[in-house]
Amino acid sequence: MLLEVLKSKIHLVTVTEANLNYVGSITIDEDLMDAAGIIEGEKVQVVNLNNGERIDTYVIKGKRGSGDIIMNGPAARKMMVGDVIIIMAFALMEPAEAKNFKPSVIFPDTRTNRLKP
Predict the structure, then answer these.
(1) According to CATH, what is the number of the domain 3-91?
(2) Catalytic position from the list 22, 25, 66, 104
């Protein structure tokens, strides 16, 4: 049996752009991706604190150090510029591994979407 557990979390960042006319996905500043252990193309769940929406999508690598959090395609209808969101990635693990696993959770500055010193 495998359990799905939290692997990575970017806690409380602000949507900087919403691009409806795009293929789809979420673009995340590469610094935040690295800090949280999220890779390009990985499936993530995004939850919106402003309206309660939840979506599953995949990650596109954003410009390093930009603070970009861009909702692309249909997600741009669910999460708008200025909304505060949480981005989570999950992994499948055996129960014994899951018991000792510690997820990578980061808390960037919500105003700038940059890592705190």
Answers:
(1) 2.40.40.20
(2) 25
